[in-house]
Write a sequence for this structure.
């Protein structure tokens, strides 16, 4: 795994008087940062149940937080945060049980399946007894 940044995060429980007390001590708000994260999971919550957290951070890209202590079950407070898409995909294949060598259908095949099913069926009939059309996989044979 590639070397990355180490993020140290400390969380504090604050009350309604915290901001005022900080100002009394000379504290000032230097800047405010806001962002939006969109989290993704399967309908069965496979990622969350294995303590994996896949998110797309606004203006920043994809991130996958995975437990940093291998072999320890349950919620963690030490996570590795992956931001390189190939590493994220490799980890997702592992946790979701998908083989990395499976190929996804081409954009054209997906388009035909969704919006031109009759044309897609004709394509399958033409290539049915020969080699499959480029961009199809075994799952394609059950469609139609």
């Amino acid at each position: 795994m590639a070397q990355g940044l180490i993020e140290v995060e400390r969380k504090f429980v604050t009350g309604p008087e915290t901001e005022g007390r900080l100002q009394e001590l000379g504290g000032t708000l230097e800047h405010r940062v806001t962002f939006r994260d969109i989290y993704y999971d399967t309908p069965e919550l496979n990622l969350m149940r294995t303590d994996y957290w896949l998110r797309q951070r606004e203006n920043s890209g994809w991130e996958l937080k995975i437990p940093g202590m291998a072999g320890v079950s349950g919620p963690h407070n030490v996570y590795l945060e992956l931001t390189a898409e190939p590493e994220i995909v490799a980890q997702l294949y592992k946790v979701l049980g998908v083989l990395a060598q499976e190929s996804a259908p081409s954009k054209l095949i997906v388009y035909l399946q969704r919006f031109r099913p009759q044309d897609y069926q004709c394509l399958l009939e033409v290539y049915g007894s020969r080699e499959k059309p480029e961009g199809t996989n075994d799952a394609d044979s059950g469609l139609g």
Residues 107-142 form one domain.
